[in-house]
Amino acid sequence: MMTTIAHPASAPREAGANTAPPRRRRRRRPSGWHLFLAPTAFIFLLPFLQMFMASVAPEKELITFPPPFIPSHIDLGHVQTLTTPASGFIGLLSGSDVLLWLGNTTLVAIAAIGSHLVLCSLAGYGFARLRFRGRTFGFFAIVATIMVPTQLLMIPTYIMFARVGLIDTLGAAIVPWLATAFGIFLMRQFFLSLPAELEEAAMLDGCGRWSVFFRVVLPLAKPALATLAIFTLLGSWNDLVWPLIAINNDHAFTLQLGLSNFQGTRRTQWSLLMAGNVVATLPLILFFLVAQKQFIATMTFSGLKG
Amino acid sequence: MTQWALKEDEKAAQRPPARRSGRSKSPPTAVPPKYPVRDSKAARRLALLRAVEGWTFVGPATLIVLGLSIFPAGWALLLSLQKWDGFSEPRFVGGDNYAALMSDPDLADAILHTIIYTALFVPMSILAGVFLAVALNRRIRFIGIYRTAIFVPFVASAAATGILSTYLFNPQFGLVNNVLRVIGLPEQGWLEDRGQAMVVIAIMSLWGQAAFTTVIYLAALQDVPVDLLEAARIDGANRWQAFWRVTWPQLAPVTVFATIWQTIGAIQLFDLVYTTTRGGPLDSTKTIVYFLWEQAFKDLSFGYGSAVAYLLFAFTLLITVGVVIYARRAKIEAF
Q: Nearest residue of B to residue A45 by CA position?
């Protein structure tokens, strides 16, 4: 809305400048906020920078004092020998099942996102637009579950999964992410915000409910679907507590489980740990950089709208 | 995941009355002469068809969500009245588990540690959110870079954050002690020190979650009416006064919401404890949920664990209700 202002000065300052002419001279100077923002931004980036640096640093440099922040040269590590433990990316790839875990996590995330997009948009649409017996009750039961802490559900869910043989399989990590109350809620709110006239017109033209849903409504729902997909991706990719309880078999480990397990068994192999961290985090960081707007929309929705 | 949608829940609770009144408009026009009594069969068929169609849409997701929440929640209540290790025959013990909760010194410690963490984390995350949102809410050079840098830690998992914390705060080789040494301050034990471990965990949680409070405050700041701020300026308020007298009160609903949200998240702390200290040193970072996890999945006390879980649920409800009542009293329209 302030596109007409040619100077980079902020809007409030512009307003102030009109009433207090002497300030006009300061407008072209860089804002003082840089003095706060630049160091803050650097501190927020620091852990990630350290992670990338340490993942390619020679192991020896990480345990000297003081450790250099920037490694002297890039060292991709080595496999385990009789005298030295595995280190770096090479040690990680040769000495652990990290690729399998990456595959498992990817599978969980894809299954979660696919199922969420289908089931939650169907349910959200049903609750938003269709009139049928039990609708109000069903929706309120779902909303009520949002208040229940997941910790309350862990024990019975574990027993249930054990009875149907899901424990120690990847399925245990997938099933809780097939659909969530938040997802249904998000989609319902979105469909309520769409004008119903469009659908009514399509139905007058002879479309049934299903073709209205797939041909008219879903194409309009792309922003909401993006929000839902990101929410599901973050949640299922980073989930730790539930897989920790439900999966003890390291062939069904997710990346997060493998990493937290590393921390017990390879406590001082820093370059290997950091390489594992890079594998687990880099995909999400890259995705964030590409789709920052959608990520922020996801965070905002979870907070304010609805 | 339950953390994400509290507000929606509250708002939705207010919606149905309006919906019902909207629906009641149609029957008077449609019902009287057009459908005599003998068509009730047709009406019932129509209702049935609609129910089938409706439940085909909402059924699968509803079944999964309720099957994995309401049903286990009820079962947990039953379990909390039993003594059971998962293998032998469960034994009904009535309120014994709940009585045992009251006099368990380990649980009391866990509650204390959780309160310490909450008291550290929640105010820090609110303050950081307001501060960063105000700082980021302007059009200056590099603002995009600053925003990205502050938001990107949001994608870091607890496992990754845990490993990063143990390295950054490593007493021997860690960056933090190295910086302290360079500027001439005494080095600290951090995660290996009973008094400091929880502080480190709170700082690293803040690193990962500051983005959340910042984003919601940023959104709220854009809604503060510009003419109010201009009026304050014209009346002679400086920026500081304008912020505290005009902007801050406008942000009150967000503050109430963020406080509830962050508090509920804080009392459920587990991941970061597991991936950094595993409850140590000397149990100083053992939280309620960590205690629950140990009881249920290490000692296999399913009954006692379920009772602890219900205690946690009660805390969650109390905090929410408490803050909402406070907000109503203070006339803040948060919900």
A: B149
